[in-house]
Design brief:
Shape of chain B: globular
CATH class of chain B: Alpha Beta
Number of helices of chain A: 16
Structural class of chain B: alpha+beta
Radius of gyration of chain B: 11 Å
Largest sheet of chain A: none
Strand content of chain A: under 5%
Largest interface: A-B, 33 and 23 residues
Strand content of chain B: 25-35%
Order of helices and strands of chain B: EHEHEE
Helix content of chain A: 55-70%
Order of helices and strands of chain A: HHHHHHHHHHHHHHHH
Number of strands of chain B: 4
Oligomer: heterodimer
Strand order of the largest sheet of chain B: 1-2-4-3
Distance between the termini of chain A: 52 Å
CATH superfamily of chain B: TusA-like domain
Number of domains of chain B: 1
Distance between the termini of chain B: 24 Å
Radius of gyration of chain A: 19 Å
Largest sheet of chain B: 4 strands, mixed
Number of domains of chain A: 1
Shape of chain A: globular
CATH architecture of chain B: 2-Layer Sandwich
Structural class of chain A: mainly alpha
Number of strands of chain A: 0
Chain lengths: ~350, ~80
């Protein structure tokens, strides 16, 4: 059992995360899909900023010894197939793992239905009917890097990062990626932070949706706080979503209190935080689409559950938490989440 | 306030999920004539911020956004031309 103080920290980080997600409308499904369908780059810019802030924060904390980086294992087949299924699923569900979760707090019934499919099929894949499929994919395509363990990570053989595979100090990669991102944003993103009428600080925080820069920085800071807080509770990883929901659902089924983890408290806090943010802004209301759309969202959620467990991470575990650690598994898994998203979005909205 | 705007057509996308409010608005605008005014009733906060960006990129004019209730807005868009 983990100590109550650690459980509390999961809930508080979740509250912050949910509040920030709702205010910034931070959803990677929207971010990736909008590039293609609406030619809108606003949320993508928020995602890039969040990743840069986290990448610098994680590596700074690792360098001074507050945390140990914990990149996920690379199994290329599982990352590719799981990522693609997840990407298709989130388009059908109308939200990624974080988007679906914060919209539950806003009162969107369709996202609640998607979450049921998501949680159920995460369990089906992690310990049920689809477990052999997932195990086979992960075991048969696990990549072992045929080099000696180098100085930058103990887990370099099966959990490679850009830094360990090139055997350079990770700060070199952090620097290169940060510079490229800032140059591209300064060139392409100039002048598009919403020009806001002068309003009170209260209104800008609690009533209006946030601009992409504030959103990206806020999400990044929550991710940085999450890493040591979660590690102190025995889960050495930053923000996650899928594991939290899967364990919560499994707890409901089995009643086993050991399933209540930091991540479970984080997702519960997320929904509460999103509800508080939406309620203050006058955006909380129970609302539902028609029956056909609800079924579409359930199927989407189910595909997300299968995909996330196979890929060993959703868009939060891989893209938001793994990419800033420079994990190859997360870069590959994240890339196929984007491809799956574009594939489904093209079929559904562009023909 | 909104009474001085006479919409030619109304599109109700309440309850719809991301990104249907935006996609349906785009489609509806394409079927309308220059100068006509579309009223969109929407309850999804992200679309309330994104629809104005999208329609202005298409060259249409956003006349007004009115918050009519808890998580419910009316957008008035004038077709370009």
């Amino acid at each position: 059992m983990i100590a109550p103080v650690h459980i509390l920290s999961g809930f508080i980080v979740g509250l912050l995360f949910g509040f920030v997600l709702q205010r910034g409308r931070f959803c990677m499904n929207s971010a990736f899909r909008d590039i293609l369908v609406l030619k809108d780059y606003t949320l993508l810019k928020a995602v890039v900023i969040a990743l840069i802030v986290e990448m610098i924060g994680f590596h700074a904390m690792a360098t001074i010894g507050i945390i140990h980086l914990n990149p996920k294992p690379l199994f290329w087949g599982a990352n590719i197939i799981g990522g693609f299924l997840f990407g298709v699923g989130m388009v059908l569900a109308g939200g990624c793992a974080s988007g679906t979760s914060y919209r539950v707090g806003e009162g969107m019934v369709g996202s609640m239905v998607a979450l049921l499919g998501y949680g159920a099929f995460a369990i089906v894949t992690s310990s049920g009917l689809f477990k052999p499929f997932k195990d086979f994919l992960q075991k048969s395509t696990l990549v072992k890097i045929p080099t000696d363990i180098n100085m930058y990570a103990e887990s370099a053989r099966t959990n490679p990062t850009l830094a360990t595979i090139t055997n350079v100090n990770p700060w070199i990669w952090v620097g290169i990626i940060t510079i490229i991102a800032i140059v591209v944003l300064a060139w392409k993103g100039r002048g598009s932070e919403e020009v806001e009428k002068p309003k009170s600080l209260y209104e800008r925080i609690f009533k209006q949706g946030w601009g992409w820069l504030s959103t990206g920085i806020a999400v990044g800071i929550v991710g940085i706080i999450a890493f040591p807080a979660s590690a102190a509770a025995g889960r050495n990883y930053p923000l996650g979503i899928t594991g939290g929901w899967a364990r919560l659902f499994k707890y409901f089924i089995t009643g086993d209190p050991n399933l209540i983890s930091w991540e479970v408290l984080e997702v519960v806090g997320l929904v509460v935080g999103a509800f508080i943010a939406a309620y203050i802004a006058g955006e909380a209301k129970l609302r539902a689409p028609d029956a056909k759309r609800l079924i579409q969202q359930f199927i989407g959620g189910a595909l997300m559950g299968v995909g996330a467990v196979t890929n060993f991470g959703c868009n939060i575990g891989h893209v938001l938490s793994g990419v800033p650690q420079l994990a190859l598994s997360s870069l590959l898994g994240g890339f196929f989440i984007v491809l799956g998203c574009w594939f489904a979005a093209y079929l559904m909205f562009m023909r | 306030m909104s009474s001085d705007i006479k919409p030619t057509a109304t599109l109700d996308v309440r309850g719809e999920i991301c990104p249907y409010p935006d996609v349906k608005t785009k489609k509806k605008l394409k079927s309308m004539k220059p100068g006509e005014i579309l009223e969109v009733i929407v309850d999804y906060p992200l679309s309330v911020e994104r629809i104005p960006r999208t329609v202005e990129k298409m060259g249409h004019e956003l006349l007004k956004i009115v918050k009519v209730g808890e998580s419910e807005w009316k957008l008035y868009i004038k077709v370009k031309g």
